[in-house]
């Protein structure tokens, strides 16, 4: 996904002279083609994220489209106040890109995990939170973010995520994409955990449960129309994410449910990261297993929830 | 020219004090220390057209010490960005004139919201970089407080501005020697401030921030090629009113009616 980001930003930069790429001293060589193709529009801002975000806001207020790139915790919580005031309050259309979503960098330890970013950023007025599930959604979302009049947070994985969309769908920020049709169960996921979610749907199908799968690439604004349809039509809606259970996709859906006048038909099931810092390191797959974010565990939880609902 | 600027500064001080009294707006002393700097900028230095506040070629100004907004609101009105009568709504519920510069084009002439300290210089640096990319010759001026220089983001921006050789960027530090609850040289070791900016790669000068001729001269001097400029302006908190000068209680205190009258008398501004 990281390489696709570099490719796509290079392509878009050649077309759109407003695009400026700001890096927090990462991505050595990754952006060489951008630097060649867009002279003067790549800035290594050093290991100084608060300044980088303020600089981006200043540029955006001048009509440029700055894209800020570094590792997810450093482009979000490290400079949160600059995002809140300089970008959101000033309505400066900065594109904030965080690489290493969720547990992507599990081997680097909790300093480099990013399991709170969706929760924190989506509370900011005017912010859009976009978590592509695969390279296809990333390419489409990047273009949509450039066309959007407001700040957008793009939550990337790392490298090597598989392509999940066989054909390029039409993508609009705030509109979920149906990946599979189904019946009593719907698996809603955001971000790169989607590959595992599709496998969970396969396992459910083997057990005779046809699960619908939805990519909620945009957590904010939430696709409320799609949610209304799913909660009226299904028995179990599972929100699945590589993010803390607190305030992520599942949390956003729970908030939406709590504001509805009548109880929904479906029950909400949350599959997410527990509220802890893991004190062991390992691969991303290992970390996902630690929090039950594997196809097997997800399918099991969905079957249990469905049995309880019946 | 200098005499006229001094008269304007005195009138601005009187209006700021009166507005503080009428609306209960604090940070009076922080406003009074930067009035001469703002007057010189808006009436002698900045390239701007108040009737067209969005003109691409205008010089950009950011009040990074946003709590001096009561001073900025008065300066912008006097410079003609909006009628002075608009300030009658100051402090009203639902109004736009409060304690900090607001976002979103609500007050003509304000480039960006500030108020949380340490934000204005990075934003100004972004604007200076944008001007360079666009091939525009406009300059960017940012006023910072000395207390504000506690913020790490100020020094992050300082290093990047030097690395990028931003000679279209000028800051003025309103060095009034106080921050909210103590002497700015004691709370964090700020001195020697001009040397700090030099060490960070800037061209730095020190001036008396209340000597109008010196302020204008420093602001009008062409920048050193390839270096951003820091003007360290030695100022006095509460400048212009004897009983407010260098008394940090006036960071938050609101003047009473008699104090407003006494201040006007000292400033030579008829009620």
Please describe the structure with a list of short key phrases separated by commas or semicolons.
heterodimer; A: 310 residues; Rossmann fold; seven-stranded mixed β-sheet; five-stranded mixed β-sheet; B: alpha/beta; two-stranded antiparallel sheet; 7 strands
Describe what you observe in this structure.
The complex is a heterodimer of chains A (310) and B (271). By secondary structure, chain A is of the alpha/beta class. Helix content of chain A is 39%, strand content 20%. Chain A contains twelve helices and twelve strands. In chain A, strand 8 (185-190), helix 8 and strand 9 form a beta-alpha-beta unit. The radius of gyration of chain A is 19 Å and the shape is globular. The N and C termini of chain A lie far apart (40 Å). Chain B has a single domain, classed as 3-Layer(aba) Sandwich (Rossmann fold), CATH 3.40.50. The interface between A and B is medium-sized, with 31 and 30 residues.
CATH superfamily of the largest domain in chain A: Thiamin diphosphate (ThDP)-binding fold, Pyr/PP domains
- Structural class of chain A, please? alpha/beta
**Sheet with most strands of chain B:** 5 strands, parallel
Instruction: Give the number of helices of chain B.
Output: 9
Element-by-element helix/strand order of chain B: HHEHHEHEEEHHEHEH
Number of domains of chain B: 1
Greatest contact pair?
A-B, 31 and 30 residues
Give, in order, the helices and strands of chain A: HEHEHEHHEHEHEEEHEEHEHEHH
In CATH, what is the class of the largest domain in chain A? Alpha Beta
How many distinct beta strands of chain B?
7
Structural shape of chain B: globular
- Runs of chain A in which pLDDT lies below 50 for 5 or more consecutive residues are none
Distance between the termini of chain B: 24 Å
CATH architecture of chain B: 3-Layer(aba) Sandwich
| Biggest sheet strand line-up of chain B | 1-2-3-7-6
Q: What's the alpha carbon Rg of chain B, rounded to whole Å? A: 17 Å
> What's the count of strands of chain A?
12
Order of strands, main sheet of chain A, comes to: 2-1-3-4-6-5-10
The number of helices of chain A is 12
Give the overall pLDDT of chain A as a whole number: 97
